[in-house]
Amino acid sequence: MAPSIVFSLVSLLLVSTCGYVQPLEEGFISAVLSDKGLEFAKELLIEKGIASTVMLQLPEIENSAQVPLVGKAKVVLSNITINNIQVNSSSVKTGESGIVLVISGATANLSMTWRYTISSWLIPIGISDSGNASIEVTGMQVGLTVNLRNQEGSLKLTLLDYGCHVGNLLIKLEGGASWLYQLLVDAFEGNIASAVEEGISEKIKEGIVNLDNLLQSLPKQISLDKTAVLNVSFIGNPVLSSSSIAIAINGSFTKKNEVLVPLDYQQGLKISAACGGLQKMMKVSIHENVLKSASLVYYSARKMQLIIDKLPDQDILNTAKWRFIVPQLYKRYPNDDMQLNISVSSPPVIQLTYQDIGATIFLDIIVEVLEKGELIPVAIISVKIGASCAVEIVGNNISGRLRLQQLSTYLKWSKIGNLHMYLIQSVMSSALKTVIIPYLNYKLKRGFPLPIVDGYGFQNAIILYNHPWIAVCSDVSLEDYYLGQPSPYIS
């Protein structure tokens, strides 16, 4: 087994599926791998393990034996190579003791070269010969037990037990005498079996060390843009039940260069194990506080601002268009261009419901007139927007699409007297539907990344709402981690 075997196993632990109900600690994102996901991981690990172990070359073996009537024979076996492995049965189990992967009843085919020399008082000049041989290994058992623990926000992988046992060997010589075959069986069978067992066991050990180093190097935060980072450090230890593996991830947004401090919420919240009656490999559950923390970060960074100086109907941004809606504006500033300076006046209120994400957004829209090259604010209109957000999966990101539900406006300040707000509201509604909402949807479409390792992707994902959580239930697709090509093991 090579490093890729265990790497793939733990990689799949970083996504989540159905079959788990467990109080979370402080994590805003939960991750669970179900029995279906474990089965998928097991088959993938075996395929990748076979690909990594094939062409493994074992150390040279040298031994000697006394041959009746001939003398002492010195035999050297070299270029011992594992050419093929077939697995008949396998299993993966999880529990308090760790993750146990067992392969039983496997067969392997090996090739090697041999040479011998014989010297005795009867044959003072000595004789020698060489050739090739093939070996069939049957009844091979391979197993390992690993455990995952949280170490300062990263996953620590520990190898608890591992090994390989060879059942029987069948050696077929090309060339050589019949006595040589019997010599190989009698004197070398144990050596060859031990070489296979030690070679595969050493690969397991090396793979765990390399994978543990990789896990320790995984980032604890993901940079989203120039403003925010997503805290993806692990919270608590993974929970291993008889049919699933679960982890908790912090999941809060913070400003760049700020200390990563998790936000508090009510302890003991539980997530549903259901996936709408569907059997899925993974289920990523996201608490509404993830969205709330994002809202707070971008609001505090003053990134929720927008200046509209161009519209599909550019005439709207001229006082002449407003002469019947706000005649005093046109009278005071005839035929002057305008712009709308829009800013969010408080952090948007976000709440997950049982059918979508609800958002209440409070805006201040400053109406500015461009007169003689100078922008002059003439009115401030406060707007309350009620919107819903439908969530979708784009690649490995979760993104959203806003829909306007309700709109109300009132005049906050005016330099041009009272305004007919019902007319203003109509114009604002048009601007929201044609400019502002499409602009926000463009931003939301980028989404933010779900906690899944590069090389894996969502397949046939569905969205479930269960206040205060939103869940992504999905199967997993895989592209080859090393080559960046579609995996030959997944159809």
Key terms:
7-stranded antiparallel β-sheet; disordered N terminus; disordered C terminus; Bactericidal permeability-increasing protein, domain 1; Bactericidal permeability-increasing protein, domain 2; rod-shaped; single chain; 8-stranded antiparallel β-sheet; 491 residues; alpha+beta; 6 helices
Please characterize this protein's 3D structure.
This protein has six helices and 24 strands. By secondary structure, it is of the alpha+beta class. Among the domains are: 3-11 and 35-219, Bactericidal permeability-increasing protein, domain 1 (Super Roll), CATH 3.15.10.10; 304-450, Super Roll (Bactericidal permeability-increasing protein, domain 2), CATH 3.15.20. Strands 2, 3, 4, 5, 6, 7, 8 and 9 form an eight-stranded antiparallel beta sheet that branches. Strands 16, 17, 18, 19, 20, 21 and 22 form a seven-stranded antiparallel beta sheet that branches. The protein is rod-shaped.
